[in-house]
Specification:
This protein is of the alpha/beta class. It is 38% helix and 15% strand.
Length: 288
């Protein structure tokens, strides 16, 4: 029995090229490529950004809608959206790697792509440390470590500097509003919650069960945040942020702390989260 097992392992080892690349993805899977990926399809905007950060943006042959950064990504063929894409279009692009978003695309996507014999890497970034880690792993898969490693170190260095700067400051209660109808926020498992903590804040809905729960106005009033931060859908400050002025007894309104952050700078787990974190930290500093 042992002899047969050893023989199987030996045969398996021979079937993997000596220069093969093996990287663990965020689903805990071992992804093996015979050579650095040359034709990549990315199924989320944040994945597109991170591939450019890793020095592999020129390998992209297909992306999804809202893949608008950096500017070079705008001209890459679309295969649909993050939650409604075409498998036929993906196959037609002949990718040697698909990088998918676990929770956004749905893990059934993994099953479908694997069944088509397409190498798949799952991205699921929930922590700030996952951003540089992801860039490193993408650099390994594409053979661009000369770019990805310095970028990962830069991000880690800036995050560490921010942690040192804001550690121990007065903690402020923060309500982060991602939408108005229905009223929605994020819980403690979301990357945004860690950004708030990085700046010396406390997500007042960190204990919510769901990642992006629907909540009531009454629950916000009851928890009485020191600041309300909204992101909206674009670069413009959403008008609905000012609707909170109807509740003058709310601490955030009394403090004049109704803040806006570009959603792409804090809701996408990319290097640009440093911009969003920096802005939020400066905003909260005005209350100390």
């Amino acid at each position: 029995m042992i002899k047969h097992s050893l023989s199987f392992i030996f045969i398996l080892a021979l079937s993997i090229p000596a220069n093969a690349i093996t990287v663990q993805d965020f689903a805990g899977r071992e992804v093996t490529l015979s050579q650095p990926a040359q034709r990549i399809v990315a199924l989320a905007p944040h994945i597109v950004e991170n591939l450019y950060s890793a020095g592999a943006g020129d390998r992209l042959v297909g992306v999804v809608s809202y893949s608008n950064y950096p500017a070079q990504a705008v001209g890459i063929p679309r295969v649909g959206s993050a939650n409604a894409f075409s498998l036929e279009q993906i196959v037609a692009l002949q990718p040697d790697l698909v990088v998918m978003w676990g929770s956004g695309n749905g893990m059934h996507t993994l099953t479908q792509l694997v069944a088509l014999d397409i190498p798949v890497y799952v991205s699921e970034l929930r922590r700030l440390s996952d951003v540089p880690d992801s860039i490193r792993r993408l650099g390994q898969l594409t053979g661009t470590m000369a770019v990805s490693e310095p970028e990962a170190l830069r991000i880690e260095g800036e995050l560490s500097a921010m942690q040192r700067r804001y550690n121990g400051l007065k903690q402020l209660g923060v309500f982060y509003q991602i939408w108005d109808e229905p009223l929605q926020t994020v819980n403690g498992e979301h990357l945004i919650s860690e950004v708030i903590a990085l700046c010396g804040g406390r997500n007042i809905f960190s204990d919510a069960t769901f990642l992006a729960p629907r909540i009531s106005i009454e629950s916000v009033l009851l928890r009485d945040p020191d600041a309300i931060v909204a992101s909206g859908m674009g670069e413009a400050r959403p008008e609905w942020l000012d609707q909170w002025r109807s509740y003058p007894s709310l601490s955030a309104v009394h403090n004049g702390a109704l803040f806006f952050i570009n959603p792409d700078h804090v809701q996408r787990p990319t290097a640009r989260v440093l911009l969003g974190a920096g802005r939020l930290c400066r905003q909260l500093d005005t209350l100390r």
